[in-house]
From TrEMBL:
The keyword Nucleotide-binding applies. This is Holliday junction branch migration complex subunit RuvB. It comes from the Bacteria. It is found in: Cytoplasm. Residues 1-28 are annotated as: Disordered. ATP binds at residues 33-34, 75, 78-80, 141-143, 184, 194, 231. It comes from Arthrobacter livingstonensis. The gene is ruvB. Has 3 domains, the large (RuvB-L) and small ATPase (RuvB-S) domains and the C-terminal head (RuvB-H) domain. The head domain binds DNA, while the ATPase domains jointly bind ATP, ADP or are empty depending on the state of the subunit in the translocation cycle. During a single DNA translocation step the structure of each domain remains the same, but their relative positions change. One of its GO terms (cellular component) is cytoplasm. Residues 268-362 are annotated as: Head domain (RuvB-H). DNA binds at residues 323, 328. Residues 64-197 form the AAA+ ATPase domain. Belongs to the RuvB family.
Amino acid sequence: MGAGAAGPAGSAVSSGDPAAAAEPEERELEAALRPKNLDDFVGQERVRKQLALVLAASKIRGRSADHVLMSGPPGLGKTTLAMIIAAEMNAPLRISSGPAIQHAGDLAAILSSLSEGEVLFLDEIHRMSRPAEEMLYMAMEDFRVDIIVGKGAGATAIPLELPPFTLVGATTRAGLLPGPLRDRFGFTGHLEFYSVAELELVLRRSAGMLDLKLTSAGFAEIAGRSRGTPRIANRLLRRVRDWALVHGIETIDARTASAALDMYEVDARGLDRLDRSVLEALVSKFNGGPVGLSTLAIAVGEEPETVETVAEPFLLREGLLGRTPRGRIAMPAAWEHLGLKMPGNAVAAAMLPFDEDVVDDV
Ligand SMILES: Nc1ncnc2c1ncn2[C@@H]1O[C@H](COP(=O)(O)OP(=O)(O)OP(=O)(O)O)[C@@H](O)[C@H]1O
Ligand SMILES: [Mg+2]
């Protein structure tokens, strides 16, 4: 299968998912639970259908598939889909990431060693360096790169033909991709948060693979606390499994699941420690906001990017947090969720019209 053929080619290539769970055992388990083909991939109906069409057409044409961009919050299946694309195309897969490609030469080394039809997965593609990005434009469009030899006035560009390949880019921040790069992808799949019903299916599949017994209500309880995210669902399932094991429980029902998850500080709405500390900071330190992203990030002791890509999308979707031109605000539901009464002046701030596209950084 394609995914297994990922091979190292220099330091810019990694064999795993950098954003995956930190512990090696967790990472291994996560890899084991990854669906291997489109049929096993739960949910994301639209993206799955569109992708199936792109792949089927390229098979009929006998060509490598068009370049594909996957965008969406962490843990929704971007890396999984990249691996599925390679597997479905019966093509080898090469994995690297934007941060690993700091020089155009890093990218040239990868591109020049690709074989025909190979799938090149570039994770966090928005974090690639500018010169590498420009090299990628030409490679994507004309399957050609110019290798610069020498320096200064004596430098010459040696053109190098590349075999046709499929680039699969993944990003949690599609807005940060320069237009010319975005335009060179033949297909962009926007991954959405999963419904509770879809997460139940993800959990059923994982439980089967891990040989765990759960009641329907047990699955529902975990799914409801998984923030619309399969990676979180699988992680919570493993924590509930640990809890059940230690307490000698064979069949996991809703009560077991909820007792275990309460212990891990995942609340009934699925908010974890980071989500809650963002809301608590907003409410208690800034009277509900508005407050700029960087200030908010400092208040919770996190990087702005972590707050923006990990906590915010879910809080926005749940109507707990709002983005205004003047910064982030706690929505009425946030006060309610924290068991607090919203003061009148915070109500006024929350009621101002706000624009989701504004990326403030005051
Ligand atoms: N549609 C799905 N069906 C079943 N399992 C899924 C699905 N999507 C994701 N998963 C599971 O969730 C885990 C995380 O998915 P994946 O690594 O593809 O996310 P990602 O979008 O690449 O995240 P990141 O932005 O952090 O890199 C996988 O190990 C896989 O087991
Ligand atoms: Mg990934």
